[in-house]
């Protein structure tokens, strides 16, 4: 993922060189390894918490070469501003995509693109329109508050691994049922019996350790295999109503659910053939919710 947040709205470009404390804890808890990608003129911002994750073997940083960057520009604030805007608009996402491609070649099947927000942003030459199964978990994943120390989160990750592994295993098996089977009803049945319980177990354990938590939503793009493509047309009918058919449930007063749909979306070319194409995440921050 990018080492910083880039938001482009109309003619305004906003660059944040750091991650929020909640996202730091989200990545710490739910990902085995995190690779942050940066490039001049914006460099990875360190800090005590990031050093903790680096020491734990979770976080690493990779810098891309930006041929358009002129180091002398930093001497003139006006010129630097133009360089920064040019980089964000023309080079940030291409460099990001190129580095992701190299990383996937070096360790095939080990990495997945992750971006914060509602859609995957990629340059034209690195994206392809793909029919995918989209599985969205809404308000399902507890995220410790920013005032909870990372050491405590890491301790939870180590000592409550059964609950975390239960959710991970259940999701992985559900992914496989979706992308490999023509019997999509089986995937629904599997969720009703297993996934809701795994989410409840993790939320209960998180509440014991952290008290009130934010709740994260995650949207995963799954590549449909040849075997599942024919049955994929049933996605719109089998999973069209997550409230009644996917066993939605309440966590801390918020409605939590899993929704599965079939969509055409823009995905990273280099990820085709890996099964899980991309992740998008958001964290419920409209007040604190009990896990």
Q: Could you list some keywords that capture this structure?
A:
single chain; 291 residues; alpha+beta; 6-stranded mixed beta sheet; 9 helices; globular; disordered C terminus
Question: What can you see in these coordinates?
Answer:
With 291 residues, the protein is α+β, with helices and mostly antiparallel strands. Helices cover 41% and strands 30% of the residues. It contains nine helices and ten strands. It has helices at 21-30, 48-55, 77-106, 150-159, 161-180, 184-210, 226-232, 235-238, 242-245, and strands spanning 5-9, 12-16, 34-38, 59-63, 113-116, 127-144, 212-223, 249-251, 254-268, 276-290. The protein has a six-stranded mixed beta sheet with strand order 5-10-7-6-9-8. Strands 1-2 form a two-stranded antiparallel ribbon. The chain has a two-stranded parallel sheet with strand order 3-4. The longest helix is centred in the N-terminal third of the chain and has 30 residues, at 77-106. Residues 9-13, 227-253 and 286-291 have low confidence and may be disordered.
What are the SSEs and their pairings?
Layout: E1 5-9, E2 12-16, H1 21-30, E3 34-38, H2 48-55, E4 59-63, H3 77-106, E5 113-116, E6 127-144, H4 150-159, H5 161-180, H6 184-210, E7 212-223, H7 226-232, H8 235-238, H9 242-245, E8 249-251, E9 254-268, E10 276-290
Parallel strand pairs: 3-4, 5-10
Antiparallel strand pairs: 1-2, 6-7, 6-9, 7-10, 8-9
């Amino acid at each position: 993922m990018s080492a910083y947040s880039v938001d482009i709205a109309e003619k305004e470009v906003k660059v944040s060189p750091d991650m929020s404390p909640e996202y730091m804890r989200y990545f710490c808890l739910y990902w085995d390894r995190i690779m942050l990608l940066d490039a001049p003129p914006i460099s990875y911002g360190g800090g005590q918490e990031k050093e903790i994750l680096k020491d734990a073997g979770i976080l690493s940083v990779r810098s891309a070469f930006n041929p358009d960057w002129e180091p002398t520009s930093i001497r003139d604030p006006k010129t630097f501003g133009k360089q920064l805007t040019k980089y964000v608009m023309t080079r940030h996402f291409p460099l990001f995509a190129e580095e992701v491609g190299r990383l996937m070649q070096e360790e095939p099947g080990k990495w997945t693109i992750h971006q914060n927000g509602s859609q995957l942003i990629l340059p034209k030459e690195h994206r392809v329109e793909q029919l995918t199964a989209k599985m969205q978990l809404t308000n399902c994943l507890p995220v410790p508050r920013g005032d909870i120390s990372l050491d405590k989160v890491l301790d939870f990750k180590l000592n409550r691994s059964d609950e975390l592994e239960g959710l991970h295993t259940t999701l992985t098996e559900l992914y496989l049922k979706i992308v490999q089977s023509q019997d999509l009803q089986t995937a629904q049945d599997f969720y009703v019996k297993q996934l809701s319980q795994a989410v409840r177990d993790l939320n209960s354990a998180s509440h014991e350790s952290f008290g009130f938590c934010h709740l994260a939503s995650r949207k995963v793009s799954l590549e449909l295999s040849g075997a599942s493509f024919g049955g994929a047309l049933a996605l719109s009918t089998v999973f069209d109503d997550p409230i009644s058919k996917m066993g939605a449930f309440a966590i801390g007063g918020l409605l939590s659910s899993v929704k599965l749909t079939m969509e055409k979306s823009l995905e990273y070319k280099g990820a085709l053939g890996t099964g899980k194409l991309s992740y998008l995440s958001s964290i419920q921050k409209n007040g604190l919710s009990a896990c």
